[in-house]
Design brief:
Length: about 300
């Protein structure tokens, strides 16, 4: 017997992330879900046809109209602080390899060493992104401005007007000097409808590296420390149904970034038909006809551009 694996209902769980819109309230003829399929070992399953998916709303089966690759905008945030200097070659190599796998997706590149900067505006040009990423370096004595970079990326992603976006952070685990309140960061991210993926190298009892001679060292000024970066990233990943990965050495960046890339490659947008005037669903179930697979999905109130 063919076994269908169902994802739990997720519409209510993402209400804070994906706000209702007039279009959703007007009950369009089709609805959409962002989904990825994994096998029993957690490996992504790609290339599935529409007739291999099953969608139910509140127990009612829906007809699958189309399945398309998910190509929503992405912001990649790279730690260029002095904390990253000992492992920066490995961190940068992981970023360049990750970017090499992107196709047809608007992507922007940010750094957060000494200050939060956007170094490449949103583009689908992989070569432009890789060229700039290959030229990045860790700032000697540079402090970490993680929250500043997250807020800037979230605000600029929001301006893309995509109903879902993603922020990928690669951090060496420095103490954040942004002096931002946590609620400000959470508000910006949730307003942008971003999913946060974070890869962080964090050693226990890590101390800030020394600043350059002649510079004031803010490491001794506790008033500038708002919250630890790992608490921020873990919280954001949890609230946005994203993923936080803690690594212990620079060599872990490549494998972790490859995992995020595989997830992006396996994500699809499923379009399914609904009866005219159907109310918003309270329970969404997604499955496949393939034995041993599990579908993880988020209900969306949008159509892909």
């Amino acid at each position: 017997m063919t076994r269908t694996a169902w994802a739990p209902g997720v519409v209510a769980a993402v209400a804070a992330l994906l706000c209702g819109s007039p279009a959703a309230q007007a009950a369009p003829e089709t609805r959409f879900v962002l989904a990825r399929v994994v096998d029993g070992d957690g490996a992504p399953v790609i290339g599935l046809a529409p007739d291999e998916f099953i969608v139910r709303e509140d127990g009612a089966a829906r007809e699958i109209v189309n399945v398309l690759p998910a190509r929503y905008p992405l912001a990649v945030l790279v730690d260029t602080s002095s904390f990253a200097r000992p492992v920066f070659l490995q961190l940068r190599g992981a970023v360049v390899s990750f970017l090499d796998a992107l196709t047809g997706r608007e992507t922007a590149l940010y750094t957060f060493g000494d200050q939060a900067l956007r170094v490449v505006d949103f583009t689908t040009s992989v070569s432009a992104l890789q060229q700039r990423a290959s030229a990045l370096f860790a700032e000697p004595g540079g402090q970490t401005h993680l929250a500043d970079a997250i807020i800037r990326a979230a605000d600029e992603l929001k301006a893309r007007r995509s109903p879902i976006v993603r922020i990928l952070v690669l951090s060496a685990g420095g103490i954040d000097r942004s002096s931002r309140m946590p609620r400000t960061v959470y508000g910006a991210v949730l307003s942008s409808r971003a999913i946060v993926s974070a890869i962080e190298m964090r050693l226990s009892n890590a101390a800030p590296p020394a600043s350059r001679p002649g510079r004031n060292d803010p490491a001794v000024d506790s008033s500038m420390v708002t919250f630890a970066g790992d608490r921020l990233l873990r919280g954001l990943a949890d609230r946005t149904l994203g993923h936080y990965e803690h690594i212990f050495s620079g060599s872990g960046f490549a494998e972790a970034a490859s995992g995020v890339r595989r997830q992006l490659e396996s994500e699809v947008v499923i379009e399914y038909a609904i009866p005219a005037g159907a109310p918003a669903a309270h329970g969404l179930e997604i499955g496949t006809h393939l034995p041993g697979t599990t579908v993880r999905g988020i209900g969306l109130d949008w159509a892909p551009r």
